[in-house]
TrEMBL record:
Gene3D superfamilies: Glycogen Phosphorylase B (3.40.50.2000). Residues 23-42 are annotated as: Disordered. This is Glycosyltransferase subfamily 4-like N-terminal domain-containing protein. InterPro entries: Glyco_trans_4-like_N. Pfam families: Glyco_transf_4. GO terms for molecular function: glycosyltransferase activity. Coiled coil: none annotated. Residues 12-143 form the Glycosyltransferase subfamily 4-like N-terminal domain. It comes from Pedococcus dokdonensis. Keywords: Glycosyltransferase, Transferase.
Length: 361
C-alpha cells in the first residue's frame, strides 16, 4: 500500500533525495508540484499546496502534507487557514524545520510567528541536527525527529575526482546579498591575509542584480568596493546571474575552501554540496552548521569575526600545503543515508497518519 505525500516543494533537491537511490523500493509516492504560473524560474513558487483552496480540492489525492520550504510566502492567517483545511479533511501535517531563522528576513518576528502556527499544528516534526531539535524543545515544548540532510550533488559529481592544481582557491559567493549576509569585512580580512599564504587566491562572486545599477537589489557601495579591490589585483571578481546546477557544482569543486558569509542561519544545503564535492566549507558558529557535516568555523559576529575567519582559512591552507584534502562524502555512504532517510520518513508518515486518525475516531 502506497503513502501519497504532498511535499512542499516536491521538486527541491532535498525532497527528491529523500527517496532511496532505487525508488521502486519505497512505498512513498510524492505528488508533483502544482505549477504556480507566476515564475518560470521557480515554477512551484508561491506554493499552491499551502493554500486552503488546494487542500479542499485535492484532499482525496494525498495522505499527508509535508512542509519543507515556501511557507514564508504566506501570512500567519493564511497558515491558520491551511491548518483548518487539513483538519477539515483529517489530513496530518508533517513539518521539517530547516530554518529556525529565515536567512532572507532582516528581523525574526514574521518567521517566528509562521513557525509557531506550523509547529503547534504539526502531527510530527523533523529537523536536521540535535541542536535544532533542542531549540525546538526549548521554544515550543515539542520533540522533533533528527534526520540528516541527504546528498545535494548528483551521483556523477559525487564520483568525480577533484583536479589537482598549484594554487589554493578561496571562494566567497555573495549571491544577491540576502539579509543574513555581511561579506565585505570578510573579503577585506582575506585580502589582508593573502600575502601570508603564498599561492592563495581569492575569488568573489556576486549576482548581476547586486552589481549592476538600475537593478532593484543593486548595492552601489558593495559594488564599488569589490570593483576597487579587483582593480588593485587583490581578488578575482565574477559577476553573473544564478548558476545552473552543473555550473554551481563545477564552481564549488574548483575551490579549496568556500566561505559562507552569514551572520545568522540554521542549516545549509551549500555546506552539504561542499561535503559531496570535497571542498572545505568555512561556516559561522551560529545555527548548527558544525553539527551538519565536518567544516571549519568562525565567529558569526563580534570582534573575533574576521580574525577567526582568517584562522579557519589558514587551517584549510595548511592542510592543502601538506597534501591534505577536506572530508568528502562517498557515494556509497550517501546512498546508505538515502535508504535510511527514506525508511525513516516512511515511518514518520505512517505514525502521523495513525495519530491523526486516532484523534478523529
Amino acid at each position: 500500500m502506497s503513502l501519497v505525500i504532498a511535499s512542499v516543494p516536491a521538486g527541491h533537491v532535498y525532497v527528491r533525495h529523500l527517496s532511496p537511490p532505487t525508488p521502486d523500493t519505497s512505498t512513498v509516492v510524492r505528488l508533483p508540484d502544482p505549477p504556480s504560473g507566476d515564475s518560470a524560474d521557480s515554477p512551484w513558487w508561491p506554493p499552491r499546496m499551502l493554500t486552503a483552496a488546494w487542500v479542499d480540492e485535492h484532499a482525496p489525492d494525498f495522505d499527508v502534507l509535508h512542509v519543507h520550504f515556501g511557507f514564508d510566502a504566506l501570512s500567519v492567517d493564511d497558515l491558520r487557514d491551511l491548518v483548518a483545511a487539513l483538519r477539515r479533511h483529517d489530513k496530518p501535517l508533517v513539518l521539517t524545520v530547516h530554518d529556525l531563522r529565515n536567512p532572507h528576513h532582516d528581523a525574526p518576528d514574521l518567521h517566528d510567528a509562521q513557525l509557531a502556527v506550523l509547529v503547534d499544528a504539526a502531527d510530527a516534526l523533523i529537523t536536521l541536527t540535535p541542536g535544532a531539535a533542542a531549540t525546538i524543545r526549548a521554544r515550543w515544548g515539542r520533540e522533533a525527529t533528527v534526520l540528516r540532510h541527504p546528498q545535494v550533488v548528483p551521483d556523477a559529481w559525487v564520483r568525480r575526482p577533484r583536479t589537482t592544481h598549484d594554487e589554493f582557491m578561496i571562494g566567497l559567493h555573495a549571491k544577491s546579498l540576502r539579509a543574513n549576509m555581511d561579506p565585505i569585512p570578510l573579503v577585506d580580512a582575506i585580502v589582508d591575509a593573502l600575502p601570508g599564504m603564498p599561492g592563495a587566491r581569492l575569488r568573489v562572486d556576486a549576482h548581476t542584480d547586486v552589481m549592476t545599477e538600475g537593478y532593484p537589489r543593486h548595492d552601489a557601495a558593495f559594488a564599488q568596493h569589490l570593483r576597487s579591490l579587483e582593480g588593485d589585483g587583490a581578488l578575482e571578481l565574477q559577476v553573473h546571474d544564478y548558476f545552473s546546477d552543473d555550473e554551481l557544482w563545477g564552481y564549488l569543486q574548483d575551490l579549496d575552501v568556500s566561505v559562507l558569509p552569514y551572520q545568522f542561519g540554521t542549516h545549509s544545503g551549500w555546506l552539504e554540496a561542499c561535503h559531496d564535492l570535497g571542498t572545505w566549507a568555512a561556516a559561522p558558529d551560529c545555527g548548527f552548521y558544525a553539527e551538519q557535516r565536518p567544516c571549519l568555523t568562525y565567529a558569526a559576529d563580534g570582534p573575533e569575526r574576521t580574525a577567526s575567519l582568517v584562522t579557519a582559512v589558514r587551517t584549510a591552507y595548511a592542510n592543502w600545503r601538506t597534501g591534505g584534502t577536506a572530508p568528502r562524502a562517498s557515494l556509497g555512504t550517501r546512498h546508505t543515508e538515502r535508504r535510511l532517510l527514506a525508511a525513516a520518513h516512511e515511518h514518520v508518515y505512517a505514525a502521523a497518519l495513525d495519530r491523526r486518525l486516532a484523534c478523529t475516531s
